[in-house]
Design a protein that fits this description.
By secondary structure, the chain is mainly alpha-helical. 44% of the residues lie in helices and 5% in strands. The strands form 4 sheets. The protein has a 4-stranded antiparallel beta sheet with strand order 3-4-7-8. Strands 9-10-11 form a 3-stranded antiparallel beta sheet. A two-stranded antiparallel ribbon has the order 1-2. A hairpin with a 6-residue loop joins strand 10 and strand 11. Helix 3 runs parallel beside helix 18. The protein is globular, with a radius of gyration of 20 Å. Keywords: Glycosidase, Hydrolase.
Length: 470
């Protein structure tokens, strides 16, 4: 797709009506200020220092929060991202801002070389991007943004314009990334799954020969404690995987790393339900998408559910086996409506049990098993609690009737976001801020929980439930 075909219009600053008590709250004011500080005029950076470009799933979560401040700006956020979509349908995980110096972030545009290395896959010519992807939260975000101001959305043709791009994105994942042959999507790099440094990747990553340390420069260590970031060995493996993928022209196929991840696939399923809602809004047939969501749910259970762990596990496609590590990714399918009742009961038990401790030893959901050998309360995705995964699980708990637990998690997210200055992530025991502060999706999801009351169809639960078939 030509990225110049649909230029995102600039926002006018129109705001949506919402509960005045929430709008007047200090937490609302502070969260809104974070998003204002990260706004570039067409999108929002996750963090001015650490992440100075546009990130794919960050923008989806940010749009969900922005809809409470300006539905037009939320629409623009998603339109800007989708304007960088490749012709094969993939949405790249980074859209680079050309005004940002190359040394501000690594891997930078000169590493990815998207317009040349990605030429055969249809990378856009007029904007530089990465060549890998991130979790498909975008259709869910688009539907929730539409619900914030349906009149504005219809007047601008928002859903009419984004629907074909979102459909192409899902086709890419379902047709190009079923590397295991079982109907699920595989990620080909830990960065694609979004939980970059999870112990769930240690086993498949051990097969990867790291790139020499002299061949890359780490900008991330200048913005956080090195002991909280991935090790140089892990980073060398990330660089090797990305370089090999680039040098294959970003062609999908068997490689050193291919993993079926429960959260990535659960978010695809949730977005399939949202696409069904969008199709119905546009007067198109929606039943095929809802059927697909239910088939994908069945495949998820068949391939990734592990009864002895009490949760879903990642599957190492190359080795043909489940990875015996409990990560928060394996709890995220709780947000799916067609999950068998006995599985949802087990997931809630695991979430509140000793491995994750929610409601007992932890206020937010840790990213990794509290009892796991690799657990570290501060190191990136190896134990700290993140706000986006807790937000997803709050939705899942509420969807399956666990109102008390959902309310407690909602209160925990709001309190911790405020007390940590909207941290990137926190120690799951002490709530000590880690990583960057003033983090985009933390502020955005705080706004979402502040303004969507925990009753009725809060958080647009019908976007996941589906509704009437059509």
């Amino acid at each position: 797709m030509d990225s110049t075909a649909q230029r995102a219009p600039r926002p006018t600053g129109r705001t949506v009506a919402y509960d005045p008590s929430s709008a007047a709250s200090p937490l609302h004011v502070r969260a809104a200020a974070v998003l204002e500080a990260g706004w570039t005029g067409s999108s929002t950076v996750p963090s001015r220092g650490l992440y100075p470009h546009q990130w794919s799933w960050d923008s989806a979560f940010i749009a969900i929060g922005l809809r409470h401040l300006s539905p037009l700006r939320a629409q623009t956020e998603l339109e800007t991202l989708l304007a960088a979509q490749w012709a094969d349908g993939r949405i790249p995980h980074i859209v680079f801002n050309p005004s940002v110096p190359l040394d501000a972030y690594f891997p930078s545009p000169d590493f990815w070389r998207s317009s040349t290395a990605g030429h055969a896959a249809g990378a856009p010519r007029t904007v530089q991007t990465s060549g890998i992807v991130q979790p498909p939260v975008h259709a869910l975000a688009a539907w929730l943004v539409h619900l914030a101001d349906p009149g504005l959305s219809r007047a601008r043709g928002f859903l009419t314009r984004v629907y074909p791009r979102l459909a192409a994105w899902h086709r890419y994942l379902l047709h190009r990334r079923d590397l295991g042959g079982g109907g699920l999507v595989s990620v080909v790099h830990p960065w694609e799954q979004g939980m970059d440094n999870s112990p769930c990747w240690d086993r498949p990553l051990s097969r990867v020969t790291p790139a020499p340390a002299r061949s890359f420069r780490r900008a991330d260590l200048a913005h956080g404690s090195p002991e909280d970031r991935p090790t140089d060995l892990d980073y060398g493996r990330y660089v090797r995987l990305a370089a090999d993928y680039r040098d294959r022209g970003y062609a999908d196929g068997p490689g050193d790393f291919a993993v079926e991840d429960p959260a990535f696939n659960a978010l695809l399923i949730a977005s399939e339900y949202a696409l069904a809602r969008i199709a119905r809004e546009l007067g198109a047939a929606a039943s095929a998408r809802q059927d697909r969501a239910e088939r994908l749910t069945a495949a998820l259970v068949e391939r990734l559910w592990e009864p002895s762990a009490g949760m879903f596990l990642c599957r190492d496609v190359r080795a043909g086996e489940l990875i015996p590590e409990r990560g928060v990714s394996g709890l995220v399918p709780l947000l799916l409506p067609a999950l068998p009742r006995d599985l949802t009961t087990t997931l809630v038990r695991t979430l509140s049990g000793p491995h994750f401790g929610l409601g007992g030893t932890t206020r937010l959901v840790p990213s990794y098993d509290l009892l796991g050998e690799a657990f570290d309360p501060h190191r990136y995705w190896r134990g700290p609690a993140w706000f986006n995964t807790s937000w997803l699980l709050e939705r899942g708990l509420r969807l399956h009737g666990e109102r008390g637990r959902a309310d407690a998690l909602r209160r925990g997210i709001l309190h911790t976001a405020g007390s940590s200055d909207f941290a990137e992530y926190v120690d799951p025991y002490t709530a000590q801020a880690c990583g960057a502060t003033g983090f985009g999706w933390t502020a955005a999801l705080t706004l979402d929980l502040l303004h969507d009351r925990p009753t009725g169809d809060r958080n647009g639960v019908t976007a996941i439930k589906g509704g009437d078939r059509g």
